[in-house]
Design brief:
Blueprint lengths: L1 H29 L2 H8 L1 H4 L10 H11 L3 E7 L8 E7 L15 E4 L6 E5 L11 H11 L4 E2 L2 E2 H24 L18 H15 L1 H25 L28 H14 L6 E7 L4 E6 L15 E5 L5 E5 L6 H7 L1 H6 L4 H50 L1
Pfam families: PepSY_TM
Protein name: Iron-regulated membrane protein
Keywords: Membrane, Transmembrane, Transmembrane helix
């Protein structure tokens, strides 16, 4: 049994090592994505003009009026003091060609005092330019920058499957790390004085044992981040009732009808303000998202600058039909069934934001540890592979020598 588990651990580890090495290092970086991005690109984050800021809806109106080719799809409703207001945008349809306009950007930084665009970039573009570096690393973390093909996000699925394999392999690794009750202390020890292979082995085995619980949490939440709808929600629903997800439920969303008009952003914000008061939410509407392909609006409730949800279970979100204003659903942190709360906790755990700054520091450290475990695992495998090859070569020479004597 143990030998079979060793083989499984070996091949699971080899198959996922490179993916986990990349995911670990990029995860350690993007725990601080907002801060690093702002430090690298001050012209994209710092407002040029001092003075009172316009409301986010007015800024979006000015941006769209200045460039009719684009449609703002996400915007914070207020800018942080001294900062630009960053919006996401998609191309509108060209009435002459019936095709989307060509845009070389999907994110813009707007001066909140004037409405002028300070910067543009394609968020997530495969580029190492300073302006694109942090979004590139962020997308690399969960998609490997692989393409969306045939209606399938290949990178998201691949990294989700890697997470599943990693989760199973973590259980196998813990079992293998304790070969006997008498030798359990060795599984926690590091032979720093020995160096070389002994230390490499200890970093891999003992390092994994010390942080095993954190590794399992990160592995599980990585699956939830990438494969929530097709894998995790169906499994969780076997144990607890789940409130229907308004974003991925065709029974809630309706197909756009001919002649449908889209409600104004102002009207949706009014609906959101009333709904927030009715639910006694502490934060006001803080950001607005329009998903044309879903024919729906989403509104996040948070204080200015807290769009990431810096501590706890994140921010509340509510959704409305874009044509009728009918409520489609809500995701309120800490509310709902046990299954709902389990799903709510996945991103805060994965990002470390559930514990605030301390949690993000911890997640960065775990990301580096994942990279070290992946690298040391490969080194151990290569050393043993070379040893097996040398043993086979020596055995072959002995056989050939025996034939020559004969």
């Amino acid at each position: 049994m143990r030998q079979q588990l060793i083989r499984l651990h070996r091949w699971f580890g080899v198959a996922t090592a490179l993916f986990l090495f990349v995911a670990g290092l990029t995860g350690a970086i993007i725990a601080w994505d907002h801060e690093l991005d702002a430090a690298l690109n001050p012209s994209f984050f710092k407002a040029r003009t001092a003075g009172p800021a316009l409301f986010g809806l007015e800024l979006a109106r000015r941006v769209e009026a200045a460039d009719p080719r684009l449609q703002v799809t996400y915007l914070p409703l207020a800018a942080e003091p001294g900062r630009t207001l960053q919006m996401m945008a998609l191309p509108r349809t060209n009435p002459a060609t019936k095709q989307p306009y060509t845009l070389d950007f999907n994110q813009i930084a707007v001066d909140p005092a004037t409405g002028e665009i300070q910067g543009r970039r394609e968020w997530g573009a495969a580029s190492l330019a300073r302006l694109n570096l942090i979004p590139f690393i962020y997308k690399l973390h969960y998609t490997l920058q692989l393409p969306f093909t045939g209606g399938v996000d290949i990178g998201v699925w691949l990294m989700g499957i890697v997470g599943i394999v990693w989760l199973f392999d973590s259980v196998i690794a813990l079992w293998l790390s304790f070969p006997s009750l008498k030798a359990w202390r060795k599984s926690f020890a590091f032979r720093f004085g020995r160096g070389g292979y002994a230390l490499t082995f200890d970093l891999h085995r003992s390092g994994g044992v010390w942080i095993w619980g954190l590794l399992v949490i990160v592995a599980l939440t990585s699956v939830s981040m990438n494969l929530a709808a097709p894998v995790v929600r169906p499994i969780v629903s076997l144990f607890s009732t789940l409130t229907p997800d308004p974003i991925n439920n065709p029974e809630i969303l309706r197909a756009p009808q001919p002649g449908d008009q889209v409600l104004s952003r102002e009207r949706i914000v009014q609906l959101a303000e009333a709904a927030g008061k009715a639910r006694n939410l502490n934060a006001p509407p803080g950001g607005l998202y329009y998903a044309e392909f879903l024919h729906a609006y989403g509104v996040g409730f948070y204080a200015t600058g807290n769009d990431h949800g810096d501590i706890g279970l994140g921010n509340p979100w509510m959704y409305w039909d874009a044509a009728t204003g009918k409520p489609l659903g809500a995701q309120i942190p800490g509310k709902g069934t046990a299954g709902d709360i389990f799903m709510q906790v996945q991103y805060p755990l994965h990002s470390g934001r559930i514990l605030g700054i301390g949690g993000r520091i911890l997640i960065s450290a775990v990301g580096i540890a994942v990279a070290v475990l992946s690298a040391t695992g490969l080194l151990i495998w290569l050393k043993k592979l070379n040893a097996r090859r040398r043993s086979a070569q020596n055995a072959s020479r002995v056989r050939d020598g025996g034939r020559s004597v004969a």
